[in-house]
Amino acid sequence: MKRILMYRWKAYNYKDIKHTFEKLGYEIKEVWQDLLNYDVDEEFAGILKGMIKAETFEFVFTVNYFPLISNVCQECGILYVCWSCDNPLISMYHKSVFNDVNRIFLFDLTNVEEFRGMGAKHIYHLPLAVDCNRIDYLFSQTGANPSFENEVCFVGSLYEKNSYDKLEYTFPDYLRGYFEALMEAQRDLQGVNIIDRMLTPEILMELENYYQLEKSEDSLSDLNLIFSVTTLGFKIAEKQRRRILIDLSKNHDVSIYTNSNTKDLLRVNYKGSVDYWSKMPLVFRDSKINLNMTIPNIKSGVPLRVYDIMGAGGFCLTNFQAELPMQFENEKHLVWYYSNEDLYEKVDYYLTHDEERKRIAMAGSEFTKENCTYEIRIKKLLDNIKNEPL
User: Fold this and answer.
1) Does the predicted TM-score (pTM) go above 0.85?
2) Residues forming a β-bridge with 166
3) For residue 61, what are the domain limits?
4) CATH of the domain at 116
5) Three-state DSSP class for 62?
6) How many domains does the chain contain in total?
7) Which long-range contacts (CB under 8 A, 24 or more apart) does 207-215 make?
8) pLDDT in tens, 176-219
9) DSSP class of residue 232?
10) In this structure, are strands 287-292 and 316-319 parallel, antiparallel, or unpaired?
11) pLDDT tens digit sequence for 299-341
12) Is the dihedral of CA 96, 101, 107, 112 positive or negative?
């Protein structure tokens, strides 16, 4: 039997990927340990080397990229395969990304082209997926559950615990004003990311006086990347999401499922958090409109939440992303919006056109089951590996 060594961590899609490998005839051996440092952990590296040398594996697999694991695989001469569910992966901006053993699959095409441009080999584009069989089984066990009925629904974080709020008041007035203007401009743009272009050399030089960049010796990341992703990206997502939910709640019944603080969302129905596996698909199925608001850090790719909604048979209304037309048809499988005003108009329209909304949700569900399953994606991943062996 073919065998894979998988590093297990709390990625939402880990179980689905593992199950799919097993379905395709692979035996999985798991290794699990909290990594405080993705770059250097001598104890974990020793455990990993011991496992690789003691048994025969076709490759080592992780969800997202871990430099430490890549380096161990390079030393042991075994393929390292990873598939991203987050973007961009700060951990990939590392010297280890050039290791010959890497077979890296990214769901964001912009990121694929970036790393290929840097000279990294074996970088592939692989969109995300959904396990419709798992969701259908859940539905067969739970049946109808009216407690999850909503008019307009959002499931996700409001990113209120972002580092920008802690840094903001350390900046001089003009720097704070510049970032506020940048975030306001980006907040209303869908499918376009202007943050990198606006972090000019002059602004970055000034920022260095207030922002301490911590990175390892082998890291390739810089202040532009770290600040735009981990600081501005999350703060803009908070601004975008709160503004949309507040505006929609003025005229519609809006619900949110989240762990975030929602005290300022006075008209929004706070429904608490919802379990990804057992409850979230029911929310998507039973809500009339499910919102997806992609964090600006994902520049062109389609996030996991879109597949989650469509796989559950829900109606998905999402911001525009450049890769959406590569995979779906607008107003046939799902609906995308180009601005906040466009979103508000489409919410009004689809709440009053029940049959059209249900038809799109059903077509999206059927299309997803036929074209966006983990089995389809992982077969493509395996084909790429076989075509470029170590």
Assistant:
1) yes
2) none
3) 2-129+374-387
4) 3.40.50.2000
5) strand
6) 2
7) 207/175, 210/167, 210/170, 210/171, 210/175, 211/167
8) 999 999 998 888 777 778 888 889 999 999 999 988 887 787 88
9) I
10) parallel
11) 999 999 999 999 999 999 999 999 999 999 999 999 999 999 9
12) positive
